[in-house]
Amino acid sequence: MSDARLGLNIDHVATVRNARGENYPSPLRAALDAEKFGVDGITAHLREDRRHIRDEDIKDLSDNLSIPLNLEMAPTQEMLEIALRHKPNACCIVPEKREEVTTEGGIDTLKNFETLKRFTTEIKNVGTRVSLFIDADQLHIDKSFEIGADIIEIHTGSYCKLIESDDPNASKQLEKIILAIEYASKIGLEVHAGHGITFQSIKPLANLKLIKEFNIGHFLISESIYIGLENAIGKMKSLIKES
Ligand code: PXP
Question: How far is the CA of 123 from the centre of ligand 1 (A)?
């Protein structure tokens, strides 16, 4: 049995809203519903180009949620100021490229070491936990620890893609994730995981037990078109629990 938390990423409610320039569907309404349906937290990525979540969404979520808000952000001065203003429960620092469709990989903790260290210190000083979104790699885990992060979130995108397509390389990739999370937990980092997770890929990941939180967005919002948000969340929570 896994007692990992489920965080719902609500970016794609905003994607649908913005596609027509209307004020519906509302990310806040979806988040409040999700709270009722039992998610443990809400994640929202305020991208530099504001392609989905906007500044006012972060304000609405901060003002109205009773469950923790995890703000995903690129390591830019603008985002740092927003984080310090809203003081969410956690900030997950992610790499961002304008041309990408979604976050393609983990952050380079070597190249961004000094910036990440400064951001982590400033964000932790206002009582917000800091998470770094990294690939399953010992070097990035060590650097995350040196930077002072509380949490690492492992990018599960490539593993999830492999398992969805029944690729035999999936087990090799899972092995890499296992080594990474065992090492990170041993040195005292809390481990989260996210990206590309579906009903199929959650089970082997939740089975690993050391992952304390899953942040899942695109699949759950998509699935709610067919079975509703309540059922999509309920099913994902059951799959986590029974692993
Ligand atoms: N965690 C992080 C750090 C992410 O960048 C994303 C995508 O925004 C997710 C989790 C959720 O990924 P998905 O939408 O594929 O479930």
Answer: 21
Q: Indicate which CATH number applies to the domain containing 71.
A: 3.20.20.70
- Residues in the chain with pLDDT < 50? none
For the chain, give the mean pLDDT. 97
Q: Is 140 a catalytic residue?
A: no
Domain range holding 96? 5-242
Closest atom, ligand 1, to C-alpha of 219: 16
Is-above-0.90 flag for pTM? yes
pLDDT digits (tens, 9 = 90+) for 126-160: 999 999 999 999 999 999 999 999 999 999 999 99
The predicted pLDDT at position 29 comes to 98
Structural domain count, the chain: 1
Q: Which of 35, 195, 213, 223 is catalytic?
A: 195
218 CB near ligand 1 (under 6 Å): yes
The neighbour count for residue 98, using CB atoms within 10 Å, is 8
Catalytic entry in 12, 35, 52, 72: 72
